[in-house]
Specification:
elongated, Rossmann fold, alpha/beta, single chain, 11 strands, 4-stranded antiparallel sheet
Length: 530
């Protein structure tokens, strides 16, 4: 019952009542057409058996049967269109929520959990869940209307036969459903481990080959793949078994009744067989779809949890424009039980050149995240020109910054595309390209990627991208440490000289002798700064 309640809330929350209404209307139309189809197939069968119907009636029956078949094809197409359109809407809304969620909430969700939604199991599970819900509703509607038709047209003996066959199906379905759900939980677990193996292989390729770990990863891959495919094949077998077994039992039961009794007339037998012929596949669909819906529960639970943790609480109303001074007042920052720093006091003015130093893990990156508004302080306040930064990220505050990190991301595209430059080309554009050395990389229209550039070349593009924005505050987080000493000195001196009003914050482990900074914040000793 807990799962049924969750599925109901999931559909209402993420798909809306319109999805259910559309699906039910389509299912109702399909069910009515199915009953009409059975009736005219029955009429057509009687024509061949009794041979007392005019040829005009025969043509009419054929025409109706063909017309209904065409309508059924259109309904099936429309039903699947509904499923995939709503799947598209759901995943698009998730994507928009991710992009519009605050950095605070994104830090609460690991990147591989997000990628799983788009690329791995959850994506297909969402598609599968929505389509199986549609199939289940459609099959249930058709089964219900066919049963009503049987009750109306057949006698009590026939109805008893149908109920008996229905009971057979429920018994076998109950057994297989429990087995399928148990296997599906294992499949979900294996799938997550399989994704971890693939991700680790892609990320740590060099470490794997250098440490002779190829055989280990191959064995893990083979084991997970074999386990996954074995369980999936077993579930396919279990899902199809009830239909086949009940079909055989149904034919056997009808044969015995015909052989040893005279309870059923020819008309009743024809109508009964036709009804069973149509109803058994629908029962199979209900059983299979219900099993697939249940098996999607763990993934949908993950989807729901991640969606709720991605809170779109970005401040879009404030207008924060850095003009004079930024002050960190008694700032403390904790990640759970881990204390990053306590009672940090630091301030700087517009145009200041600031150096952040300290050992790895001392809090330099956390300071940057606080300044950007990516994480809120545990206590204390950050004041920008007498304006207190709120605990949620502000779009207008983010426009004051450009940040370049050690691992500059490169989009698959041209050099020009990677500069993210939207204005018309100007002297300043070419000045930045010369300053950062991007002009030496060749034609701006050549296609580049992460694999075609060295770390230093990626950093040059990242720096050019940042300077073209003309920010109030430029943050260089280990941004040019892959360049040679003379290039680093040249770039820093030019930035300091040509951008006197731009606050520049450098996080670095390389030698900065010869570069004059206005202030230095040493995270190894937070009580001392110059």
């Amino acid at each position: 019952m807990e799962k049924i309640i969750f599925f109901k809330k999931f559909i209402v929350t993420y798909l809306g009542n319109k999805f259910l209404i559309l699906t039910c209307v389509v299912s109702f139309i399909s069910a009515v057409l199915e009953v009409i189809y059975i009736f005219y197939i029955y009429k057509l069968s009687k024509y061949f058996i009794e041979d007392n119907t005019s040829i005009n009636n025969l043509y009419f029956y054929l025409f109706v049967i063909i017309l209904i078949s065409l309508f059924k094809l259109l309904i099936i197409k429309f039903n699947f269109s509904i499923s995939y359109n709503y799947s598209f809407i759901l995943l698009r809304n998730f994507y928009l929520r991710y992009l519009n969620s605050s950095p605070h909430s994104r830090f609460r969700v690991q990147n591989h959990h997000i990628s799983n939604i788009f690329f791995d199991g959850s994506n297909s599970i969402v598609n599968q869940f929505i389509s199986q819900v549609s199939i289940c509703i459609l099959s249930f509607s058709s089964t219900f209307f066919i049963l009503l038709f049987i009750i109306y047209k057949l006698d009590y003996i026939s109805l008893l036969i149908v109920l008996l066959i229905f009971s057979f199906f429920l018994i076998f379905s109950k057994y297989t459903k429990n087995r399928i759900y148990g296997n599906s939980s294992s499949i979900s677990s294996y799938f997550k481990k399989y994704n971890e193996i693939i991700n680790n292989s892609l990320i740590a390729y060099r470490e794997i080959i250098l440490n002779n770990q190829i055989n280990k990863f191959v064995k893990q891959y083979e084991y997970m793949q074999y386990s996954l495919r074995k369980l999936q094949a077993h579930n396919q077998f279990l899902g199809n078994s009830p239909k086949i077994i009940v079909e055989v039992l149904s034919l056997l039961l009808i044969f015995l009744i015909i052989k040893f009794t005279d309870l059923l007339s020819v008309d009743i037998i024809i109508l009964l067989i036709l009804s069973l012929y149509k109803i058994l596949p629908y029962l199979h669909n209900i059983n299979y779809s219900y099993g697939e819906i249940l098996s999607s529960y763990p993934n949908l639970l993950d989807f729901d949890g991640i969606y709720k943790r991605l809170s779109p609480d970005i401040d879009v109303d404030s207008n924060i424009d850095f003009k004079d001074n930024i002050k960190f007042s008694n700032i403390s920052l904790n990640y759970g039980d881990s204390i990053v720093f306590t009672n940090l006091n630091f301030e700087f003015n517009i145009g200041d050149k600031i150096l952040l130093v300290g050992s790895s893990g001392s809090g330099k990156s956390s300071f940057i995240h606080l300044l950007l508004g990516f994480v809120p302080p545990s206590s204390g306040s950050i004041i920008v020109d007498d304006y207190h930064l709120l605990n949620n990220f502000s779009q207008s505050w983010g426009r004051n910054f450009s940040i370049v990190t050690h691992s500059t991301f490169i989009f698959n595209g041209s050099i020009f595309d990677n500069l993210l430059y939207q204005d018309s080309l100007s002297d300043y554009f070419f000045y930045v390209l010369n300053l950062t050395g991007v002009s030496s990389l060749g034609d701006l229209n050549q296609i580049i990627s992460e694999e075609t550039l060295s770390t230093g070349q990626r950093q040059r593009i990242g720096l050019a991208r940042a300077l073209l924005k003309q920010p109030k505050i430029l943050i260089l987080d280990e941004a040019i440490n892959s360049l040679d000493y003379s290039s680093r000195q040249f770039i820093m001196e030019k930035i300091f000289a040509d951008y006197p009003q731009m606050t520049t914050i450098l996080v670095s482990h390389f030698d900065v002798s010869g570069i004059n900074f206005d202030k230095t914040l040493n995270f190894s000793d937070l009580l001392r700064y110059d």
